[in-house]
Amino acid sequence: METTKKSKVLVIGGTGYIGKFIVQESAKSGHQTFALVREASLSDPVKGKTVKSFKDLGVTILHGDLNDHESLVKAIKQVDVVISTVGRKQLLDQTKIISAIKESGNIKRFLPSEFGTDVDKTVAVEPAKSLVFGAKRQIRRIVEAEGIPYTYVVGNCAAGFYLPSLAQFQPRLTSPPRDKITILGDGNAKVVFNREEDIAAYMIKGLDDPRTLNKTLYVNPPKNTLSMNELVTLWEKKIGKSLEKTHMTEEQVLKNIQVYPVVPVYVILSINHTVFVKGHQTNFTIEPCLGVEASKLYPDVKYTSVDEYLSQFA
Amino acid sequence: METTKKSKVLVIGGTGYIGKFIVQESAKSGHQTFALVREASLSDPVKGKTVKSFKDLGVTILHGDLNDHESLVKAIKQVDVVISTVGRKQLLDQTKIISAIKESGNIKRFLPSEFGTDVDKTVAVEPAKSLVFGAKRQIRRIVEAEGIPYTYVVGNCAAGFYLPSLAQFQPRLTSPPRDKITILGDGNAKVVFNREEDIAAYMIKGLDDPRTLNKTLYVNPPKNTLSMNELVTLWEKKIGKSLEKTHMTEEQVLKNIQVYPVVPVYVILSINHTVFVKGHQTNFTIEPCLGVEASKLYPDVKYTSVDEYLSQFA
């Protein structure tokens, strides 16, 4: 089923978490591989290193940017297949890739950024509904409307994101728990966990394959399809120990989505470290040449004291 | 100390969380008030309502955008004072406001977006160090280098953000806890909590005041300056009940900043709701006309099973 000549591949977003695996797999499997990289990424210590590793694999680095239409078209004209691995916040910016593919007119296959659950089979709640699933679905519909040949690769759960913590994100554990674990819902829903390298391997296999043209390529290997309860049992067997299980009911999950902060907890916590641990709001004297204190300067303002504020909740 | 004629005020970012309070206070206190609003905000259900409430207060709505230099200059030319209330992610974009103020040449006072701890007195850890404190500090230095008259308003902790949960963010409580509470560090650092309306009142008082020119205006009212331990005691008195206290040591705080997820927990949890509670990865049959399964299509790929993956941690 392999075509005789392997397609030339452009990866957009290649220095990102998942993109790295795709670029590596594409180059290693003998595709002439190009990575579109922003000039700014070269001076970034982490991304600069990634770019160097790409060069060592024979990848051609093209300088460009999603927002630079000319650079996009120029890059796309050199290849047969475009793979987008842009991050969550740039999903809708993929319309710019679609425009450039239309203008170039030479692309045999486009693989938009997916790397998750099938967005056409999912009924999600907010904020994932709009931020993730809605955005990916919108891109799919535009690709189809424009008549661009596509493959949607549904990679399901990336193992490196889910398995080291056994899906314990609050806080996110760096190795699986050995005493207690929280299970969402009844823990019987079947989930698919795939190693990033494997998702990349199937993706690169599929991009020249007529059997995946204008289709969704599901990465659902049977050995990787298991429920959270089965996952926990598997882990318990490995460590020879039973974990204390707490279930978070669906009702509680939905309520927690509302009450968890919109700003990432690690940002809040680093602010709170300066405020609550270090006391940086009060551990200095206001120098009169540089600062003035408001309640002294404007004694006519009847400010609400903390005491009064808290009374509304008691 | 009041000037005879009140300055005309432009608020940039007025439909945001803190901006609303500033626009309202400016208009109510008799300043001719202008709000720069993006056209897109008008069709947003929440922001559209806010804009309507501004109009009811006599605020002049100007259409424009940080990225539209001409619209910025045009807006700035109509006023004496510019207040920025842009959000965390737009802090560095305030260089665009600074350029427009330089070009306009008529601004008597600029109040950049602060609404937190004094960034020149804070030694924060990442990510707040760069994302918040570093960005605000950078803007201060540019304002000073450009010779723009300024006031930095240090509002410290916004009550509406901190007090309803008594700083319990994981998950964020919607009313103060009545059984147990986590305290960062020893709980003795003195913190300042101010109601948003009061921060706005002091800010608007200060913008025409020669005593605040090129100075920092600290909002540190004595009744609102208290330690976390004192805050908890105050709350315990109100509910006539003692809370079970857990201290998170500084070491643990610093470790947690590393392990908390970078993506907001509420986004992760809403994704996990579809995956772990609803089972959307596996609760459908792949229609052959639309999809293909990778491990069946490419049996030569030796994928890593979940079982094998977990072995590395056991």
From TrEMBL, chains A, B:
SUPFAM superfamilies linked: NAD(P)-binding Rossmann-fold domains (SSF51735)
Q: Which domain of life is it from?
A: Eukaryota
Would you indicate the residue range of the signal peptide?
none
Domain spans labelled NmrA-like: 5-310
A Pfam family reported for this protein in Swiss-Prot or TrEMBL: NmrA
List the Gene Ontology MF annotations in alphabetical order. Answer: oxidoreductase activity
Assigned keywords, A-Z: NADP, Oxidoreductase
Record-linked Gene3D superfamilies: NAD(P)-binding Rossmann-like Domain, UDP-galactose 4-epimerase, domain 1
The record, for InterPro entries, names: NAD(P)-bd_dom_sf, NmrA-like, NmrA-type/Isoflavone_red_sf, PCBER-like
The name this protein carries in UniProt is NmrA-like domain-containing protein
